[in-house]
Protein 1
Amino acid sequence: MRIATWNVNSVRQRLGHLLDFLKEAEPDALCLQELKCMDADFPRREIEEAGWQVETHGQKTFNGVAIISRSKLEDVRRGLPGDESDEQARYLEGVLPLGTGVVRLASIYLPNGNPPNTEKYPYKLNWMRRLTAHAKELLAHEEPLVLAGDYNVIPEPRDAREPAAWVDDALFLPPTRSAFRGLINLGLTEALRATTDTPGLYTFWDYQAGAWQRNNGIRIDHLLLSPQAADRLAGVSIAKHVRGWDKPSDHVPVLVELRPQ
DNA sequence: ATGGCAGCTTTGAGCTGA
């Protein structure tokens, strides 16, 4: 089974790339972030006509997450629990029924948090606390679980081409990295680092200053696996070539392959 | 040292992203 995550930076701008990637990668499910549109404006018809099921949790202008899958997503949850006043569409969760069992899957768009000296940073840290609390509840189910998305967290210096440039950034500040470790320490496995120690693996390259051409990237899109999912981990890949397509997203897809149960 | 791009909306200058 193949599960992918991709921050598309506007699903309407990226529809062509999205359909191409689905055809090329043939995932069982693809988590999307940064739809930048309301549910009514999501290009649902085009994706369904290509043979996919679609669940969305959209928002006007900003944020928005979705899960595209071959089989229909069940037990769908929209929004991260823990703050009824939070109106930002950053979390979508459901259960994928499979021939050999089920996998619970979440599409996550964790807040950026910049600039750190504003209310945006405590919002990010609080969101991470809520995610950790919710993940703890999900882990109690002792089932295959994949928490996939744009975490806006650079876990370690080796996950940035120029770590010194990020030391004062919300993506790399010590409280951010500490909160990410706290999430992992619940018992989750970060899929890519379970398979390789190679530096220079990135999932985001800024549009500015020739970041892509200079390979000045950061690794901020992650898939976290419960023990029951990690036991089945067969491989991880970063679809780096997608960043070279015409009019690309600034993020590329990340994929995990899980063995059958 | 700085800004540089892209996408959104109040459709055009300002916000946001990372």
Protein 2
Amino acid sequence: MASYKQIAERTGLSFGTISNVLNGKGSVKEENVKKVYEAIEELDYRPNYQAKALASDSAKLLGVIVPSINDVRETEVFSYMEEFARSKGYRIMLSTSHNSAKEEKNQCEIMLSSQVDCLFIMPYSSENKEYFRRLSEQMRDRIIFINRYLEDVDIPFTVVDNDYAAMEMIQYIYKMGHRKVTFLDLKDRGISSVRDRRKGIIRWSAEMNMECEIKEIESTLEDEVMIGYQYAEQAIRNQELPKVILARDDAMAIGVYSACMQYQVSVPETVSIVGFGKYYSDYMTPKKLTTFNRDFKSLLKQATDMFLAITNGETEHIQRKIFIKGYMENGATVQKV
Amino acid sequence: MASYKQIAERTGLSFGTISNVLNGKGSVKEENVKKVYEAIEELDYRPNYQAKALASDSAKLLGVIVPSINDVRETEVFSYMEEFARSKGYRIMLSTSHNSAKEEKNQCEIMLSSQVDCLFIMPYSSENKEYFRRLSEQMRDRIIFINRYLEDVDIPFTVVDNDYAAMEMIQYIYKMGHRKVTFLDLKDRGISSVRDRRKGIIRWSAEMNMECEIKEIESTLEDEVMIGYQYAEQAIRNQELPKVILARDDAMAIGVYSACMQYQVSVPETVSIVGFGKYYSDYMTPKKLTTFNRDFKSLLKQATDMFLAITNGETEHIQRKIFIKGYMENGATVQKV
DNA sequence: TTGTAGGCGTTATCAG
DNA sequence: CTGATAACGCCTACAA
């Protein structure tokens, strides 16, 4: 691997000059600039980012940790982050916490040891609360929570405004003429986002004088589509399928929808289904899912904007807790009565 | 940030000893080991991987470049690589070439400058053939092509055996009683994989005495689901929908299927659809797509195995060109006649 | 078992 | 405009 050393030998120039050429700093004689570029070409020189990171203050590295990448949802995070990184000259290190609190901690440590400029993380559970609290003191504002947050931990975050979402959903259902909803959830893992949504659903349906039933599914499956499918299959067999289902997730909603198709239960005539999020739903056939679009893109943008602001030293008046409002996306899976 | 320096100051030990403790090398007095760990704890010390990489020979870093992450397919690559990296103590840098040859080159350079131990890349087009040929000389066996390869470029690869796949598919169609197929393709971008498959389809249908029609779609759309949908919509309106469609891709197949659902064209009675790959198809409702499962997992495993072999210095008898055989996956979208 | 010193590829500072 | 030199944090002989 060629380095400044061989460039220096070849051109007779010093490290300082070479560095200036390569980084477009200071001013260098035209002739020497040329010499350096020639040497680079012939030596197949390539900068060493590790060394650069060590010598300067920033590694130009962003860390991203998500709970898993087994399904479609998280790709949006990468996709967005990747785009952002490219546009700002950062590189991306990626890992997942594999739905495990221990692994989450491991991966955080690895990211920090990698000297990331900022770590964007979708926390998995509240088990690492103490750990994150400690981190927040050590590296103030070098970590940003995405989509989920931990209560009493002073790490900036951007999350969906779940109370608002719940309100929108309930009001939508109400307007469609329904007076009872069933919220389909999984057993709680202590993370805020779904819990907040559920709270909101309960609160707002009370507010609107609607009956609200919570169904907590316990399942060993990972895939929420399958979980939804199995639940619905069971419910259809037992003839206890609710009239209006709000799934915690659009994956789960699609599972429910699939089962209905399979067993010839007509949607929305027999059962209305509302999802949350808009990932799988584009591929759902033949009907479009009625779902709440949480506007994830804008959530991500807020996160990177926050990072930018912090980088620019605007540490003072930075909004550290951001709640994103989304909007109902009209599909064809809710019946007007 | 705490470093060896502060640990040394605190413990009165030297760099060498600290290094030995932290890396479990040499032998260090029990008492001093303890001292070091205490210091680490109190100083919130964390190793600096950049420095480590610089001082040692390996960065313990793997690079992954895929053409895009806008859809489901590529997540499998990450997911697998991530798992592999974790198990072997590597980190992962991820980026996409954004379906652009220029960007592909950029990202490669960035990866190499990041001192990745190995770069796994799904080449986008053949435009960078010259570039890769040059790279192959500079960094022999530090690059591995995944899923696609470039002819006349001496970079090891693992790809799907498309000729075999074509044979399997054609034979399947034949056994189902059909004597004519239509292969749905996009305008060629010069990359090997689909082209090989198409060649195979042509070759094997000739071999089996079947009629074979190639439909080359030209579209500005990115999303193959939509491309397939639009094609089928058009074909349905013009009443020229083929009897048996082999889509280049399962995304496209799903698009076609969606359109059929939308316009009440019965599958497989009116049209049989075969996909390639098995990504979206799990979420397809209500029918499962009949598709060729290319066994992508095993393809990825072969790639990482290759890397491992190279790392272990088994440079001699390494299989550098690997073709993976997949298998037909029975769904419900092909009619038996 | 421990300490010393040179080196990895850069950047940055400060003379010249 | 250019050169010398000290960092950056860690590893690795080699010497003690």
